[in-house]
Specification:
three-stranded antiparallel beta sheet; two-stranded antiparallel ribbon; 9 strands; 32% helix
């Protein structure tokens, strides 16, 4: 059951998929249609899942699930992963690789491999004040508070001097 992301409880589970490039306006419109269709039909053992999504910065797909109503199951999570993999194929984009880092350079969202990010930290091209995206947050409350933070406040800090 599709609901507005902003109406979901703070403890709703989130999954964040970062793209290795920015989606075009047309792609964002198509993605919204596909996400609406998928989430509307998303179930766990035949029970509706109350979920919503956001596309942030034309680069991140954030799906949230109210587990107070019905929890995700292995099969429902598999279905969502399969859906994301289909989007990867359709849009020739990487959404599943968690070993990449997105961060802000002014208003631009940069995307680097973890090895490149480590090298940039070593040569001071990024700093503890660089805004990074912590895609390891677990719920909406963490997403609001700890997703877009200075590198010093994220797991990224281990690479900074």
């Amino acid at each position: 059951m599709l609901v507005n992301f902003d109406t979901l409880p703070e403890e709703s589970r989130v999954w964040i998929y970062q793209a290795n490039r920015t989606f075009t306006e047309d792609e964002c419109v198509q993605l919204e249609t596909q996400l609406n269709t998928f989430i509307e039909a998303w179930t766990a053992h035949g029970k509706d899942l109350q979920a919503g999504y956001k596309i942030v910065y034309k680069r991140f797909i954030v799906i949230a699930l109210n587990q107070n109503l019905n929890s995700a199951t292995g099969c429902s999570i598999d279905a969502s992963v399969h859906f994301i993999q289909e989007l990867e194929q359709q849009y020739s984009v990487d959404l599943m690789d968690k070993m990449n880092v997105s961060y802000k350079q002014g208003e631009f969202i940069a995307y680097k491999t973890l090895l490149d990010f480590k090298a940039m930290a070593k040569n001071n091209s990024v700093s503890k004040n660089t805004i990074v995206f912590n895609n390891l947050v677990h719920n909406i409350a963490e997403f609001k508070e700890n997703w877009e933070v200075p590198a010093s406040e994220s797991w990224h800090s281990r690479f900074l001097k």
